[in-house]
Design brief:
Elements (H helix, E strand, L loop, with lengths): L1 H37 L9 H10 L4 H5 L4 E7 L4 E10 L9 E12 L4 E4 L8 E3 L4 H5 L2 H4 L17 E7 L3 E8 L4 H11 L17 E7 L2 E8 L3 E8 L2 E10 L2 E10 L1
Antiparallel strand pairs: 1-2, 2-3, 3-4, 4-5, 6-7, 7-12, 8-9, 9-10, 10-11, 11-12
Amino acid sequence: MKQSVILFFVLFMFGCQKASNHTETTPKVKNAEIIEQKTVEPNREINCEEFFREVVLSSNLSAVKNDKDVFVRIESSSDEKIVLELYVKNNLSESSQNQQIVENAVAWLSFIPASEKLFDITEDPEEPLEVSFNRELLTKYDFKTLCGIQAKKSVKPVNNNLKTNCKEITGEMLSGEECIISTNSLEAVYNEIIEKSLVRDSEFLLKKLPKINTSQKINKNGIVEISYKVSKNSVIIEMFYEGGITDVELYRQDQSVKRKIVYNAD
């Protein structure tokens, strides 16, 4: 009888120890699986507005400092300029069930893709103030692909005997080039612009250089009007866009012609 009691006690203790070991190991494996799943993060993809929100939040703009929950909306977009509206959302309702959300604009910005610069146009669009931001975002994200911005057309080489000496023109809200062409013919330089597409949207220019001042309404591809001012030794062409002006200037200089093409953003 005494031996039976001892055997029963030993089996009972062995069973409790085995059950205790089982209950300890099971949650450890489960927790390990949970931790491993949390460390896996999917690649984050952003769109054009989200990219500019990161740009705005990294800037020194006072509106960002005053309103942390600022939203960004693209008001207009072109290859020359992107206009951004910064706004906040306010709930005017006193009831939590029936909220009345109202948007209030706090700032307006313009981004120039060519110079990759950001400007505050809230106070005066004619005199924009440059805004600094984290420029590492420009290398982190391909904003031109995100925003559907077309790469600037490269200038095609001239397949004739004319020699061209060019220099680049840059500014806060403009870009272009100035060239000296080894000919004294304004018509030849103008025809070269048409044939080689040396200026953006050259297909809307007149096929032949007019003899007198003239203008024509276009209203296509964002172009409103093209005007020509023609004299004996110069030709000035202005291509008026909804978001800027392209200037083409030709000046006869002895045995050469100075050709100047400038893209101006409003």
